[in-house]
Design goal:
Layout (H helix, E strand, L loop, with lengths): L3 H12 L3 H8 L3 H8 L7 H11 L3 H4 L37 E11 L9 E9 L6 E6 L13 E6 L8 E6 L2 E10 L4 E5 L8 E4 L6 E11 L4
Parallel strand pairs: 1-3
Antiparallel strand pairs: 1-2, 3-4, 4-9, 5-6, 5-9, 6-7, 7-8
Helix pairs in contact: 2-3
Length: 227
Amino acid sequence: MEEFKTRLTIALSLRGMKATALSRATGLSKARISQYMNGVYRPNASALCLLASTLDVSERWLMGEDVPMERAGQEPSPAMPAAPGEARFPLPSNLSPLHLRRYPVLGEIACGSPILADENPEGGYVTAADTHADFCLTAKGDSMVGARIHDGDEVFIQQADMVDNGEIAAVMVDNEATLKRLYYYPEEQKLVLKPENPSYAPLVFRGEELNHIHILGRAVAMQCKLR
């Protein structure tokens, strides 16, 4: 069995990719990639998935196992022909390869009463690279269950100073964050943050109160565990 660092070097060479490009594509630091390539560390499960997806190779192969290099269900790369007699199957029409990207976590956001959102740049969650988000927040509470956002779900936010009426927004209220549908009425100088649970009343801000409101951005995706 070859070492992980050897397989990583082989994959980079076959893909014509340098370590710096792999760092940019995966969101893993250059130092971490260097440690992998020098055999200082082996990746955890999430980092391994990210590396294998970016390099378009099998996770098991990347970890040094004696298995085909190609990812399951994909045609072999022209640079890496399949072993003689090995069966290949096309993906079903309703499936497509998943390209991943890591997003920074800025803390927890309330789906109920506002709570503090502490920046946590060391963390991160992986989701599809085409999500077009800037960061993610962990939902707390049940005020947005009507929008299928439950306690513990990761909500991906696209940074914006303002969102359209009816969009779900991450909003700072006096240095505390909450996730609600936003409605703004400029003629009345009124902002309404509406939950998606009838057990909760809307949060309404008028006049000078608006000076204490800061919109972080719009919710564009969420990630949850199967319940």
